[in-house]
């Protein structure tokens, strides 16, 4: 029987940055989490230096802009059009909101820190038609924004084995790294330098942990890496210089299943990296803060 892995808890005195969460958010039914305001205040009380939230569509953009009227100190957002938005938005609604988004992103580049999350998700898009649509929209986004001099935050999810598109079994999108490869090709085509691109909640495959960092990409480690070996393993060989930390809250709790996470749990990402890289948590905290400041060009007050 394999021994149970015990990873030390995060130190109480750590400083940290959460580069990707969803706060404020549309509350699910029977939501048990503290209010948006409480989560925001708690983050800084616990040692947070900067908090970055990510919008995924027009609804989340609007609630974020509203929240920021009151709470904006050391808080910023990345403006996204998530692949799930592409796949799940009803057609009539989609075209109107896409236009609003395109307009916002071009006219307000001083208001957001980066573009994302954007990307491809072949877990949520299983037919070739839906996958092709996501690719098409991703290209449009790069075409529209490549000269804005903004960083990109990628959501990348390869198809798992049981999610293969059975109607097109030999298609390259079915490969274990089909999405990674497609995205790398598109980035090359639009001449987006890797230094401008962060892979949010990086999930592998494992060999890409060093392939991507060697090319200059930044990889973000979720707080769930603390409790789930699979998440920890994929960045084990990524140098600290290429890592930042996130919660993706309210999704991805450090060690429980379900959407019950909060931004101050990003301390668990630090504990996970310290464990996988066999270095102390303070060093990981310093490095990941430095990397996040550099990547997003943050001004901490
Ligand atoms: Zn997210």
Task: Write a brief structural summary.
With 301 residues, the protein is an alpha/beta fold. It is built from ten helices and eight strands.
Beta-strand content estimate: 15-25%
What is the CA–CA distance across the termini?
50 Å
Task: State the CATH class.
Answer: Alpha Beta
Shape: globular
Low-confidence stretches: none
Helix count, DSSP H or I runs of 4 or more residues: 10
CATH topology type: TIM Barrel
Q: Strand arrangement, largest sheet?
A: 1-2-3-4-5-6-7-8
| Overall mean confidence score, pLDDT | 95
CATH architectural arrangement: Alpha-Beta Barrel
Bound molecules: zinc ion
Return the domain count.
1
The helical percent reads 25-40%
Structural class: alpha/beta
- Radius of gyration, in angstroms, nearest whole number: 18 Å
User: What about the largest sheet?
Assistant: 8 strands, parallel
How many strands in all?
A: 8
Order of helical and strand elements: EHEHEHHEHEHEHEHEHH
CATH superfamily: Metal-dependent hydrolases
């Amino acid at each position: 029987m394999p021994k149970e892995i015990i990873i030390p808890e995060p130190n109480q005195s750590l400083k940290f940055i959460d580069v990707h969460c969803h706060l404020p958010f549309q509350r699910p039914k029977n939501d048990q989490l503290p209010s948006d305001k409480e989560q925001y205040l708690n983050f800084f009380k616990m040692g947070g230096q900067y908090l970055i939230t990510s919008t995924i569509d027009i609804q989340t953009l609007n609630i974020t802009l509203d929240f920021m009227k009151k709470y904006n100190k050391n808080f910023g957002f990345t403006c996204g059009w998530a692949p799930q938005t592409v796949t799940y938005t009803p057609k009539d609604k989609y075209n109107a909101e896409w236009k609003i988004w395109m307009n916002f992103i071009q006219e307000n580049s001083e208001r957001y820190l980066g573009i994302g999350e954007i990307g491809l998700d072949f877990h949520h898009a299983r037919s070739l038609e839906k996958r092709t649509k996501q690719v098409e929209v991703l290209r449009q986004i790069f075409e529209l924004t490549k000269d804005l001099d903004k960083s990109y935050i990628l959501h990348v999810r390869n198809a798992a084995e049981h999610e293969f598109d059975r109607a097109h079994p030999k298609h390259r999108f079915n490969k274990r790294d089909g999405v990674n490869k497609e995205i790398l090709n598109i980035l090359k085509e639009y001449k987006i330098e890797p230094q401008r691109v962060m892979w949010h909640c990086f999930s592998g495959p494992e060999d890409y942990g060093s392939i991507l960092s060697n090319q200059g990409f930044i990889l973000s480690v979720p707080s769930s890496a603390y409790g789930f070996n699979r998440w920890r393993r994929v960045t084990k060989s990524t140098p600290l210089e290429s890592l930042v930390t996130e919660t993706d809250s309210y999704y991805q709790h450090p060690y429980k299943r379900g959407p019950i996470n909060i931004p101050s749990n990003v301390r668990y990402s630090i504990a996970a990296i310290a464990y996988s890289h066999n270095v102390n948590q303070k060093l990981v905290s310093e490095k990941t803060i430095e990397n996040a400041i550099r990547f997003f060009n943050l001004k901490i007050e």
